[in-house]
Amino acid sequence: MPAIVVVGAQWGDEGKGKAADLLGGEMDYVVRYQGGNNAGHTVVTPDGEKFAIHLTPVGVLTPGCTPVIGNGVVVDPKFLISEIDGLAARGVDVSKLMVSADAHLVMPHHRALDRVVERYLGSSRIGTTGRGIGPAYGDKVGRTGIRLQDLLDPKILEKKLQLVLREKNQVLVKVYNRKAIDADAVVDEYLEYGRRLEPYIVDTCLELNNALNRGAKVLLEGAQATMLDVDHGTYPFVTSSNPTTGGACMGSGIAPTRIDSVIGIIKAYTTRVGSGPFPTELFDEYGEHLLKNGGEYGVTTGRQRRCGWFDAVIGRYSVRVNGITDLFLTKADVLSKLDRVPICVGYDIDGEPCDEMPMTQTGLHHAIPRYEYLDGWSQDISGCRTFDDLPKNARKYVERLEELCGAQVSVVGVGPGREQNIVRKELV
Ligand code: GDP
Ligand code: IMO
Ligand code: MG
Asked: What share of the chain is helix, strand, coil (3-state, %, to 5)?
C-alpha cells in the first residue's frame, strides 16, 4: 500500500486536521513531516468533543493508528510533554507515539530570538507564532542544531549547547540587550525532557519504510500550507519549512516513488494569519461574514484571521506545485446566504493580465484580482450528505472551482464534524 499526503493548499487553517482525522480511521500510521507547535489543527470527534492539536499528528485520536513525528518536524520537548499529558488526561492513548531521533529540538534561545527579532523588524515583521520555529530551522540548516537523539547522550548535549550558546548569547546580550541563557540550567532541563521522551524516540524512517513494505497504510500529514512554504510560498512571509509535497518525503524519509496520491485541503474562501500579500483580502461586510460564520480565529495564537474570496490562481498553483490528485474543499457551508459568490480567476498587475502566480513578490503585491461572480445560495447546506443534496448554485460553485484549479473536488466539507462531508470519490 502506498503513502498518501494531506497538504494545505492556501495559507493554512484549511481544515487539514479534520481531513487527516477523517482519513486516519483507514490508516495504520499518520505522520507529521514538518513544522512544529506553530500549527493548530482542530478535530471534532463524532461525540462532539473538540481537540486542538499542535505538534502530535491527529492520528493520535484514532484508536489503532500509530502517530509519528517525523525527522522534518522541530520539536519543543516541553510543549510535546504537555501535549502528551493533556491528551492522556482526556483519555487518549498516546502510548504508540513515535518521535524521530533525527528531529531537531526547539531550544530556549530559539524562542527568545524569534520574539526579539520580530520586535526589531517593527512594521516589517513576519507575524510569526513566536514559538521559535524559524530560528530552530535556521540552526538546522546552519548545522548548529540539537536533535532528539542528543537528549540521550548528556556529554554530547552539553558540548553542543555550550558551543551554540557561545554565539547565541553574544547575539542576545550585545545585539538585542537580552539576558544570556545559562547552558548548565538548560542541559539539566533538557536531560529531564529526554528521560520523559526516551520511550518514544525511534528510527522512524526505518519503521515507516518497513511498514510500507508490510503493506501498511501511511498518511503524511502536513502542517501550514503551500503559500507558507519557504521555497514556494510568499517569501519572506512564510514559515521556515516545506509544507508542500516534496517536504513530505524529506520530513519522513519516505521516497517520492512510494507516494500514490496527494490530497490538497482547500477552503471555499481564503484566510491568512500574519503579514504578507493577500490579493483577495476583504475589508468590508463580506470579510466580516467570512470571519464570523467561519469562526476564523487562530487555534495557536488566537489571532483574528484575515479573510478573502477564493483565489483560483493560488488553487491552480497549489495543484501544480504539490501534484494534487484530489481536492478536499472545506467550509463550503460558510458561503451560504450570500447573494453572489465571487471567485478570483486571475490578476491584473500594473495594467497587464496575469493568470498564473506572478514571478516576483512585487508582482503579487501589485496584483488586483479579476473576479467572476457566481449566484449564491440561501439554504443551510450543513446537513447535505450527497452532491445532489446541494442547491444548484452550490454545485455550480464547486464545479467551477474544479475547472479553474485543474483537479477534482473529491470531498466537500459542510461543517466541522467528522461526518459533515459530501464524499464524491473515496480517498482511500
Ligand atoms: P488546520 O490548521 O488546517 O487543521 O485548520 P484549523 O483547525 O486551524 O482551522 C479550520 C477550522 O475549520 C476548524 O475550526 C475546523 O473545525 C473547521 N472546519 C473544518 N472543516 C470545516 C467545514 O467543512 N465547515 C466548517 N464550518 N468548519 C470546518
Ligand atoms: P496550520 O498548520 C496559519 C504563519 C504565521 C506567520 C508565518 C511564520 O494550523 O495551518 P512561524 O511561527 O511559522 O515562523 O510563522 O506562518 N503560520 C500559520 N498560519 N496556520 C498555521 O498552521 C501556521 N503556522 C505558521 O502566522 O505568518
Ligand atoms: Mg490551523
From this structure: 40, 20, 40
Residue 1 has pLDDT above 80, yes or no: no
Where does the pLDDT of residue 227 fall: very low under 50, low under 70, confident under 90, or very high at 90 and above?
very high
Q: Which residues contact 359 (CB under 8 A, 6 or more apart)?
A: none
Q: What is the DSSP letter of 59?
A: G
Tell how far CA 7 is from the center of its chain: 7
Helices marked H in 25-148: 77-89, 108-121, 133-141
C-alpha distances out from residue 253 to 110, 210, 249, 348, Å: 25, 12, 6, 41
Nearest CA to ligand 1 atom 9: 13
User: What distance in angstroms lies between residue 14's CA and the mean position of ligand 3's atoms?
Assistant: 7
- Listed in sequence order, the residues at least 6 apart from 87 whose beta carbon sits closer than 8 Å to its beta carbon are 51, 53, 56, 60, 94
* Cα-to-centroid distance, 41 and ligand 3 (Å): 5
Listed in sequence order, the residues at least 6 apart from 108 whose beta carbon sits closer than 8 Å to its beta carbon are 181, 186
C-alpha cell belonging to residue 348 = 491584473
Average pLDDT for residues 263-279, to the nearest whole number? 98
12 in ligand 2 pocket by Cβ < 6 Å?
yes
**What SS3 state is found at 116?**
helix
- Cell reading at 120: 526589531
Select from 6, 10, 38 the residue to mutate for testing ligand 2; criterion: most ligand atoms less than 8 Å from CB: 38
Ligand nearest to the CA of 273: 2
The pLDDT, as a whole number, for residue 413 is 98
- The residue whose CA is least distant from atom 13 of ligand 2 is 239
d(CA 70, CA 98): 8
- Give yes or no for a contact between 61 and 21, defined as CB atoms under 8 angstroms apart: yes
13 is catalytic: yes
Output the nine-digit C-alpha cell for 379. 439554504
User: Cβ(223) to ligand 2 under 6 A?
Assistant: yes
The size of the chain, in residues, is 428
The C-alpha atoms of residue 113 and residue 106 are separated, in whole angstroms, by: 11
Q: Considering the chain, what is the average pLDDT of its residues?
A: 97
